[in-house]
Design brief:
The structure is a single chain. By secondary structure, this protein is an alpha+beta fold. The chain has 2 domains: about 15-175 and about 345-445, Rna Polymerase Beta Subunit, Chain: C,domain 2; about 190-330, Alpha-Beta Complex (Dna-directed Rna Polymerase Ii 140kd Polypeptide, Chain: B, domain 3). Helices cover about 35% and strands about 20% of the residues. A 5-stranded antiparallel sheet has the order 9-10-11-12-13. The longest helix has 29 residues, at about 350-380.
Length: about 500
């Protein structure tokens, strides 16, 4: 490609995108989709202490949303309440000068039910959430250069950051291992396969190993070294020939045949579940053991594939493929991509990071709500949920995390101040990527330049010292895709490409 064509392509790219596009898209997805998903994840909210004349009391979060900005009104989008009680829209520059936070209200419909009958239902402002500049929920969205100048903004401003107490803050992209993907370290009998099954707001590590007597095992949750063949049979693969056909290791591989022979006496799902229940340490009646073992397999084994009974056969099929991959990689049948290969990585942008923060602190709010409710009930009163919910608690905790950079799970430095020494420094702040690995450990492989970094990460921009190779920057033309919200549309495209649904 000659220089002229290259220049045209790059110019066209920046006409449609900028350095903050991926972060802005991630934030928009968080507001439009992830907030609703977090609410749907909530389990039944039932106080343990209720009035004696009530059999059942339940609190429900029915809906959550953020009002889109409206150029014609002053009460939607980021607003400010003045000392005289008046409410009006606020623009980013005013927030900077007055050391205010550029935030917008999050509303929720909450209802309370007594014995299945609705007692109360109301709409409340759940919290104030920071607004990313140039997102759909920012007043600057859709402004041209003249409009930006009129509100005292730089016409070349990219957005992609927040304003907290007058300070410009950006959320640094976090580099992490890709979930739901089996990776194998070592070779032969010493090979260890690891997979992190991500479901909702938690990750369950799974470890595949080969025991000294040649039995393939899996460890997940608190259950250690559970044989894989009984798991396959308990999930619906009862015929040894069926298991061998799906795994498809060939006639020369003895590992799978040893495992099938070892558990040949397990003819039914009940036999397999009974065997597993004893391995899991469930000491109850046979009927209870079978139910508990099945429940464990549904909820703790590969939950990203589903937690319903309908997902069992799908789990069995995927475990079979994991076994094949483990054995092939252990035998060095084909090259194993290392953990540092970027096909085995993912970057968490502003949207997922805010999702983690909101999900964690929403649970804190709910626990506070339940505590206050039960405390008042003990005094012989039956309070309204609308009166005792503390919306400022959630706002305070979110703003505190944004201001300090201290995130959930003990992570630090997620929120960082934007540097404006020059324009390049500003762009670099928006493109930063950080690894969660400890800076005090060597981790030579993780710090080294990998061939898959090319075109994705800058091979030069990294600090010297203990952070070398752990703090990186995206390359100029790098873009990060967001989580697919419409799975049916994706499946439709995959079918059009010729892929077939197995189960």
């Amino acid at each position: 490609m000659n220089d002229k064509k290259q220049e045209i392509l790059i110019r066209k790219y920046f006409q449609e995108n900028n350095f903050a596009s991926s972060n802005i898209a991630s934030y928009n997805n968080f507001i439009e989709n992830e907030l609703a998903n977090i609410i749907s994840e909530l389990q039944e909210i039932k106080p343990t202490i209720i009035p004696h004349d009530i059999d059942e009391f339940e609190i429900k979060f029915d809906k959550i949303w953020v009002e889109p900005v409206d150029k014609h009104t002053d009460d939607k989008g980021p607003t400010i309440v003045e000392a005289d009680g008046s409410k009006r829209k606020i623009f980013p520059n005013e927030a900077r000068l007055r050391k205010l936070s550029y935030v917008t209200p999050v509303y929720a419909n909450i209802s309370a039910h007594i014995n299945g009958v609705q007692r109360e239902s109301f709409t409340t402002e759940l919290c104030q959430i920071p607004v990313m500049l140039r997102s759909k929920y920012c007043h600057l969205n859709g402004f041209n250069k003249d409009d930006l100048v009129n509100v005292n903004e730089d016409p070349y401003e990219l957005g992609g950051y927040f304003i907290i107490a007058g300070t410009e803050k950006t959320l640094v992209a976090v580099e992490d291992l890709a979930p739901d993907k089996l990776m194998v370290d070592g070779a032969g009998s010493a090979a260890v396969g690891k997979l992190y099954s991500e479901f909702s707001n938690y990750r369950i590590p799974h470890t595949v190993e080969l025991s000294k007597d040649g039995i393939l095992t899996i460890s997940f949750a608190r259950y250690k070294k559970i044989p894989l063949v009984p798991i396959l049979k308990s999930l619906g693969f009862l015929k040894d020939s069926e298991i061998a056909e799906i795994i498809d290791l060939g006639k020369d591989n003895d590992t799978m045949f040893i495992n099938l022979y070892e558990f040949v006496e397990l003819k039914t799902e009940e036999d397999a579940l009974d065997f597993l229940s004893k391995k899991m340490g469930i000491n109850q009646t046979r009927e209870t053991r079978l139910i508990r073992a099945q429940d464990i397999l549904d909820k703790a084994l590969l939950p990203h594939l589903g937690t319903s009974p309908q997902a069992r056969i799908f789990k069995a099929y995927n475990i079979s493929k994991y076994i094949k991959r483990y054995i092939d990689l252990a035998n060095k049948k084909y090259d194993n991509y290392s953990k540092d290969h970027y096909a085995n990585k993912k970057l968490k942008l502003a949207g997922p990071l805010l999702g983690d923060l909101f999900r964690f602190n929403l649970k804190v709010l709910i626990n506070d709500l339940l505590f206050n409710f039960q405390r008042i009930v003990k005094r012989g009163k039956f309070p309204s949920i609308k009166v005792i919910i503390r919306n400022k608690l959630l706002t305070k905790r979110i703003n505190s995390a944004m201001a300090t950079g201290n995130w959930v799970a003990g992570r630090k430095g997620i929120s960082q101040r934007i540097q404006r020494i020059n324009y390049h420094d500003y762009v670099s702040s928006l493109q930063r990527v950080v690894s969660l690995l400890s800076t005090t450990q060597e981790n030579f492989d993780a710090r080294s330049l990998h061939c898959t970094h090319m075109g994705r990460l800058c091979p030069i921009e990294t600090p010297e010292g203990t952070n070398v190779g752990l703090k990186k920057n995206l390359s100029i033309l790098a873009r990060i895709s967001n989580k697919v919200s419409n799975k049916e549309e994706l499946l439709s495209h995959m079918r059009e490409a010729g892929l077939k649904t197995i189960f």
